[in-house]
Write a structure and sequence with these properties.
Residues 164-190 are annotated as: Disordered. This protein has 190 residues and is α+β, with helices and mostly antiparallel strands. It has two domains: 22-52; 58-174, Immunoglobulin-like (Sandwich). The chain is 24% helix and 27% strand. It has five helices and ten strands. Strand 7 (141-146) and strand 8 form a beta hairpin. The N and C termini lie far apart (119 Å).
């Protein structure tokens, strides 16, 4: 018998140890560990991505009702007539929830509309609507500043409500007793 028959020459691709059949049956811990790691990575990716959060830009609707000078002087005005809001022409700035990054800004309307008697405490108040365009969605809570004054928090759900839905909220809202106008000798006193 020749030497070649006793010791066959391996083919060029067959280097190293031969692959054992059914190797996974001997190492179930490795397989379970790899499966657990893949599941954990997938769950983490979904939680960080938050696919259920609407991140599309939207137009924020900010409404206000102010007692302008006409009301402070004792008049109610007629429902539906035009009025000038206290914050007419002021800039409204919308920040992210930390209040550090400016997301959008808009200028308040110079005219508003008087609310009818059906609005209870807000009857006769000057109601106006401001629209801030291209506010990035997904923040949850936003900081809103009017005219460089104090910053207040508003939820994304509230900013996404239509002007009419927000206007209806004034029907149910009561003005605290400290802020309501009082009449003394026929004159309104604030």
């Amino acid at each position: 018998m020749s030497d070649l028959a006793k010791h066959p020459v391996p083919s060029p691709g067959a280097q190293g140890a031969p692959i054992r059949k059914n190797w996974w049956k001997r190492r179930p811990v490795v397989l379970w560990g790899a499966a657990a790691a893949a599941c954990a990575a997938g769950a983490s990716a979904v939680l960080l991505w938050e696919p259920w959060v609407d991140r599309t830009p939207f137009t924020a609707t900010i409404v206000s009702a102010s007692a302008d000078a006409y009301i402070r002087n004792g008049g109610h005005g007629r429902a539906g007539e035009q009025c000038t809001p206290n914050a007419a022409g002021e800039t409204i700035v919308i920040f992210d929830k930390s209040g550090k990054r400016k997301l959008s800004e808009a200028t308040t309307s110079r005219t508003g509309q008087r609310l009818p008697d059906s609005y209870g405490d807000f009857a006769g108040y000057c109601y106006e609507v401001t629209l801030a365009k291209n506010v990035p969605g997904g923040e949850g809570t936003y900081k809103v500043q009017t005219g460089g004054g104090t910053i207040s928090s508003m939820s994304e759900d509230d900013l996404r409500l239509s002007a009419n839905q927000q206007r209806q909220g004034f029907k149910k809202t009561r003005i605290p007793a400290d802020d309501q106008r009082r009449t003394v000798g026929g004159d309104s006193v604030w």
